[in-house]
């Protein structure tokens, strides 16, 4: 190559050559580094998005699962399953299932009997008679295989995405096993979340290039924006070894399949909360975040194209700035890049790292009008949004956890403690009274001839009698004593720090008199109600079972000697 003889022209030519070579080298280096940053940001975005999708799924399903498990453990429901043809048991069970139905998200419940195969179902359309089975399941029918697989399985709760062959509805079904006292599976009860509602609420994404999906432990797809990829009836297919639509069918490389299986195994074993992979999915490179949801035994995965990761660096503009700076002088260029680019990228990268670690109190200040300034401000807004959303989710989870705890220890009809809540209170007070050397008074209260009330006036009046008697008992004991619905028409009162039998008898006689003299008038129907009481003044050294047995024996004596009376353990009739 001949250089111009003119020194100025030669300098310009040489400078142009050096500029082009240096610019090419600098541009190539910047491309490599920017790609690494994009991968880092993309991986952290995929992680955070997977955890965010997990929180959405928990928000949709945890309450539903808890309600289904509580319904399946109901003694009233179990009694009907064992005595399906008992009209009284059926009426009580259907009434309780209707109460639960109104609480479920889809306002629907189902119950399938193991002995008869009868499938009872009702929803908010009101078009179904809850007392009549919709249809009967059979082991010879392939589509009914989910029910028998659930009965034979070792899990008390399973989620199954399927279309009911008779109802014609597609849902995420929550199948909970009803067990007899022997532990034998005798029925399956539960509810379902509409599939389109679940996809919209749990895996929908407004981000371009971002796809969320849910899969079970075998990789069978349970939720996906593309419904054709969902593996319906996974519970039955897993039992019969049928071919399933799995996430592994979307992968093209054997190494990717092995890596994904290992990540799923590690997460299910508790090795970390979330993992990221780079996979080739349906012909496109995807940054993949995956997390384990142990409450449902599901995995949540987020696929994001690196090109679609939010707030990608404005590479062309920054590269031109770098090339221009390099053309002036290398040292000056290095200083400019350090001040104008690298320091700001470093702060942004550090902020992304902290965000990935769950440190949401990130404050980035950059008033520059360029792309990095906009990116920094957008990142700060994203961090603030994630922080607010995470705080909101945590508050909702805390509130709903408190509500579920109250439901677990409170009788839904009377608002008093239930058996579980009372046992916890007795155990706590027994330990406290043992330290103080004080005694505990127990009164077991039973409504006399309550079956006649239900038979003569109906269960609705019977329930109102239970509610009013519970209110009388609660209003006539001390504030620090406890009243619980012990079961059916039976109540248990615990009086703590009571050391004289006469105090116990005075309270019991007052309760007898209050109930005896109360006018129970329900919509013009007047009913005379009395109660029988068994009492026991226990020392804390006695076991709770012993205390309860003595009080219960006293109640038995009261009911066998005329009722409407108090019998204290160890004393003659009063």
What does this 3D model show about the protein?
- The chain has 15 helices and 18 strands.
- It has 574 residues and is α+β, with helices and mostly antiparallel strands.
- The longest helix is centred in the first third of the chain and has 66 residues, at 7-72.
- The radius of gyration is 34 Å and the shape is elongated.
- The mean pLDDT is 83.
Quickly list its features.
five-stranded antiparallel sheet; 20% strand; Beta-Lactamase; 15 helices; 49% helix; alpha+beta; six-stranded antiparallel sheet; 574 residues; elongated
Q: Summarize the main sheet.
A: 6 strands, antiparallel
CATH class of the largest domain: Alpha Beta
Radius of gyration using CA atoms only: 34 Å
**Number of beta-strand segments:** 18
CATH 2nd-level architecture of the largest domain: 2-Layer Sandwich
The protein's oligomeric status is single chain
Low-confidence stretches: none
Q: DSSP strand (E) fraction?
A: 15-25%
Estimate the mean pLDDT confidence: 83
Strand order of the largest sheet: 3-2-1-6-5-4
């Amino acid at each position: 190559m001949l250089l111009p003889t003119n020194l100025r022209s030669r300098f310009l030519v040489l400078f142009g050559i050096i500029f082009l070579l240096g610019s090419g080298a600098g541009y190539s280096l910047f491309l490599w580094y920017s790609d690494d940053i994009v991968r880092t940001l993309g991986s952290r975005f995929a992680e955070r998005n997977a955890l965010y999708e997990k929180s959405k799924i928990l928000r949709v399903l945890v309450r539903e699962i808890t309600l289904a498990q509580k319904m399946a453990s109901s003694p009233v429901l179990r009694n009907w399953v064992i005595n399906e043809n008992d009209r009284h048991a059926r009426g009580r069970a259907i009434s309780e299932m209707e109460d639960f139905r109104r609480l479920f998200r889809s306002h629907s419940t189902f119950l399938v009997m193991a002995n008869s195969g009868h499938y009872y179902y009702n929803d908010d359309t009101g078009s179904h008679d809850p007392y009549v089975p919709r249809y009967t399941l059979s082991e010879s029918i392939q589509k009914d295989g989910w029910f028998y697989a659930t009965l034979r399985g070792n899990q008390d709760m399973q989620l199954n995405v399927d279309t009911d062959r008779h109802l014609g509805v597609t849902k995420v079904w929550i199948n909970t096993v009803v067990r007899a006292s022997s532990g034998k599976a005798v029925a399956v009860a539960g509810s379902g979340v509409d599939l389109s509602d679940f996809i919209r609420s749990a895996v929908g994404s407004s981000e371009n290039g971002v796809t969320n999906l849910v899969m079970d432990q075998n990789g069978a797809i349970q939720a996906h924006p593309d419904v054709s990829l969902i593996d319906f009836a996974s519970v039955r297919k897993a039992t019969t070894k049928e071919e399933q639509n799995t996430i592994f069918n979307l992968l093209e490389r054997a190494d990717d399949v092995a890596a994904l299986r290992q990540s799923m195994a590690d997460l299910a074993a508790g090795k970390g909360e979330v993992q990221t992979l780079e996979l080739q999915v349906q012909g496109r490179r995807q940054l993949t975040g995956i997390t384990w949801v142990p409450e449902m035994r599901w995995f949540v995965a987020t696929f994001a194209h690196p090109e679609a990761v939010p707030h990608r660096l404005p590479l062309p503009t920054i590269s031109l700035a770098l090339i221009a700076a390099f053309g002036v002088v290398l040292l000056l260029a290095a200083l400019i890049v350090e001040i104008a680019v690298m320091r700001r990228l470093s702060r942004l990268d550090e902020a992304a790292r902290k965000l990935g670690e769950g440190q949401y109190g990130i404050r980035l200040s950059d008033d520059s009008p360029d792309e990095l300034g906009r990116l920094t401000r957008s990142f700060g807004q994203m961090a603030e949004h994630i922080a607010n959303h995470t705080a909101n989710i945590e508050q909702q989870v805390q509130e709903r956890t408190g509500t579920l705890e109250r439901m677990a220890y409170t009788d839904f009809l009377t608002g008093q403690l239930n058996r579980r809540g009372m046992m916890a209170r007795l155990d706590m007070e027994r330990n406290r009274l043992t330290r103080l050397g004080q005694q505990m008074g127990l009164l077991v209260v039973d409504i006399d001839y309550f079956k006649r009330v239900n038979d003569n006036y109906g269960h609705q009046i019977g329930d109102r009698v239970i509610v009013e008697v519970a209110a009388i008992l609660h209003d006539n004991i001390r504030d620090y004593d406890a009243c619980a619905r012990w079961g059916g028409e039976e109540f248990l009162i615990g009086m703590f720090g009571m050391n004289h039998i006469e105090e116990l008898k005075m309270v019991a006689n007052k309760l007898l008199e209050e109930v005896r003299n109360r006018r129970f008038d329900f919509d013009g129907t007047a009913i005379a109600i009395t109660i029988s009481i068994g009492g026991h003044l226990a020392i804390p050294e006695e076991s709770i079972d012993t205390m309860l047995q003595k009080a219960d024996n006293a109640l038995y004596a009261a009911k066998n000697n005329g009722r409407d009376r108090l019998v204290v353990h160890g004393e003659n009739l009063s």
